[in-house]
Request: fold
Amino acid sequence: MIAVERALPSPPPAVPLDGPTLFARYAFGPNRLGLCGPDEWPSLLELGAGQDARAGAAAELRRLAAGFEGAWPYLQLIARSAGVTDPLDRRVVEAYWLGTRDLPVADARSFAVSLEDRFHDRTSRREWPWLAAKPTDGALPVHAFHVLDVLPRVGLIRGGQVDDVLRVMDSCRIRWGRVVDTLDDRLLVEAVPLEMMGGRLRLAAPRLETIRRSLDGRAFVGDLVPGETISIHWDWACDRLDHRRLSALIASTRRQLAITNRTI
Reply:
């Protein structure tokens, strides 16, 4: 794990975005690939890039966010548990995508009820008890939990498809990476992948990979220079990460990996 820390020096402070725009930036990557949410990725791209000056842009973002059946219930649960009226409050959005702990988290009972309502009928009888026990085992309603514990129950991580499931989980989780070079509409980054070792998931040594930073002239993170740290969802650069959010993302990922590994 020392290599993980050394590869990612503390980035400069980032300017906080409003919650709806931040949601669009993280939701765009899988939405563009047709994996979740309404089939309206051009709108997410324009709204996330802050290039939609329409008076109704904010309302449009909220409509799109509510169509993400994976993320939206988690946002609602986090907001409700913290006494926040808006599921797209920036603190709620950061808590879900990055695992920040600026708000009180959902208690185990509320989280368990939410999981049962959403996933009991979509999970096999053999797999459901493992998933149902996660809230009392310390899991939180964040994106890392959904990727590392919900998706594998569907993807049958125990069923011999480990390489493919690992690829999907690694792409789907929110990753962090240090910019090495800029390549027109792409970035060369040093990112930290997942690997399976001794039957357990863990963070591997950093590796170089190429990701997208713009499409049709629109980007969420512009004017990047080598050494900056960004968040990545699938193959897309989402946002700059300051020290607080980078630390939260790394800690949340490691915490969830430990919880996931108890029942692999």
Observations:
- Residues 23 and 93 are 6 Å apart (CA to CA).
- The longest helix spans residues 243-261.
- The chain is about 45% helix and 15% strand.
